[in-house]
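Dear colleague,

Thank you for sharing your sequence with our group. We've completed the structure prediction you requested, and as agreed, I am returning the results in plain text so they can be pasted directly into your records. Please verify that the sequence below matches your submission; if there's any discrepancy, let me know and we will rerun it promptly.
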Amino acid sequence: MPRSQQNPAAQLPARMPAGANDPQAQQLNPAQAPPIRQQRNLTPVADRVPVVVAIPVRQLSGAAWCAQYPTSTSTADLISPFRENVDSFLAALRAAGASVSIAATLRPPNRAYLMHWSWKIVKANADPQSIPAREGVNIKWDHTNADGTYNSQASIAAAQAMVNTYGIRNLRVAPSLNSRHIDGNAIDMSISWADTLTITDASGVAVQITTEPRTGMNTDLHTVGAGYGVTKFSGGAADKPHWSNDGR
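Please find the predicted structure tokens below.
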């Protein structure tokens, strides 16, 4: 095609976008620019809320402690099968005309601790100033005078008051810290009857007990109890009312 007939527009160089060579024009549109993160001046502020720390106040030993951590006198709180064994033995005793008074079944560990150490202070000369603490029992065994010096007489008298209130002054052995009472496998009870006791044993046979004493310390009765799975304390007269699943 003759040069004169060519399209003049085709011969013109391509137009560049407006402002292509303008540095200012190449700046991003503010609407397209990434957001600018604002920095905050963070100033640490101390927490002015007071922290309250409770420091338990130890209470002096004495008879008032005996109302704490009460022991159960219900056989329902014993564990199976000892519970059922005791109920069967008690039913046989009552059917035979024996009198039964239950003093303790399940015993809280904290109560066992108080009974043990009050007895130890009174009966075994344990030093009230050296009694090991027990978590959760804020008792102060060692009493002091007005000037802060140790008062031995007051300390022992307070422990004696606890022993009397617990009814353990006639025990010849300290109440155990790991007693069968704690796990529901023991019962303390007083048993008595008049004349001959005719009691049905665990096999259904009527047994006549004519021997003395007519109390829970009778060895013939111990044999009947063992048949029911209720064993008299193996320590003899050291703990007269105590029966358990294994004699401990």
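Summary note from our side: The chain has one domain: 59-244.

Kind regards,
the structure core
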